[in-house]
Recover the amino acids of this structure.
């Protein structure tokens, strides 16, 4: 799933390549992708892109008074194209979900791999109309998100730190992958309770979070996926050796996701209980 670092890098790329250009047409090509109907996508035709912003993991393309907002979900991606075939693509075929063509002939495609379709596109007059944006917590790339602000957010929480980091209403933009990486860098169990954090642990967490969200800065859009995969130290690497200590990376599975961690680095050498595995062994 693209998270804050990748979405921010896409925002920077689009800001450099899209702003000031005129939209010729926007074609929805997957039945599930468009979540709004008023105004229609045709309202964008002839409009000029005025800016590209980001709200957590949402991309927001401003076109006059309208906002074309995208959430890439778990398997979505944006592909820039210098040109497109003369024949329009057939709706419902392959991973292509939406195509935006500029009057100069270039533009971008939104695609989504897999069979579970969650990529979402909204055309609204105000970004706050998009479900999820209004409830977003502070952004880690905001200058105000210092150690003190981070500590104040966690002070009111009474839950496991993994869940707190992933909660978009608490901190915008951090998902499953980067929360695993942050906790590994901070040498902290994903099941540790926020109420038990010491000052030193809070500082380590904040430092690890800031390092994680800054990692895709300057990476070309076409290399973002490869950079993310190569840079992850524990997430998605169950069974591999930890690059820090050499212990075997373990996994805890849930109904729709999983987390990865290093027992030596994060839990004092003790494996965490895998609830799904425990049920199978009964």
């Amino acid at each position: 799933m693209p998270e804050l670092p990748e979405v921010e890098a896409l925002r920077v790329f689009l800001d450099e390549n899209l702003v000031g250009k005129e939209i010729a047409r926007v074609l929805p090509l997957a039945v599930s992708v468009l979540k709004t109907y008023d105004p229609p996508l045709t309202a964008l035709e002839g409009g000029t892109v005025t800016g590209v912003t980001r709200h957590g993991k949402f991309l927001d393309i401003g076109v006059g008074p309208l906002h074309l907002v995208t959430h890439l979900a778990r398997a979505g991606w944006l592909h820039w194209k210098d040109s497109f075939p003369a024949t329009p693509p057939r709706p419902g075929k392959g991973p292509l979900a939406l195509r935006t063509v500029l009057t100069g002939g270039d533009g971008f495609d939104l695609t989504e791999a897999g069979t579970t379709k969650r990529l979402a596109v909204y055309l609204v007059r105000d970004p706050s109309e998009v479900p999820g944006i209004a409830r977003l917590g502070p952004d880690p790339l905001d200058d105000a998100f210092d150690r003190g602000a981070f500590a104040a957010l966690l002070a009111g929480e009474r839950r496991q730190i993994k869940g707190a980091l992933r909660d978009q209403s608490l901190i915008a933009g951090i998902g499953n992958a980067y929360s695993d990486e942050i906790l590994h860098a901070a040498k902290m169990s994903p099941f540790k309770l926020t109420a038990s954090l010491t000052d030193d642990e809070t500082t380590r967490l904040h430092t690890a979070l800031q390092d994680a969200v800054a990692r895709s800065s300057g990476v070309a859009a076409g290399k973002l996926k490869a950079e993310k995969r190569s840079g992850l130290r524990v997430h998605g690497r169950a069974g591999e050796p930890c690059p820090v200590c050499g212990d075997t990376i373990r996994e805890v599975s849930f109904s729709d996701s999983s987390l990865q961690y290093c027992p030596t680095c994060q839990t004092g050498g003790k494996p965490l209980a895998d609830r799904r595995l425990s049920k199978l062994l009964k």
Q: What stands out?
A: Residues 5 and 215 are 7 Å apart (CA to CA).
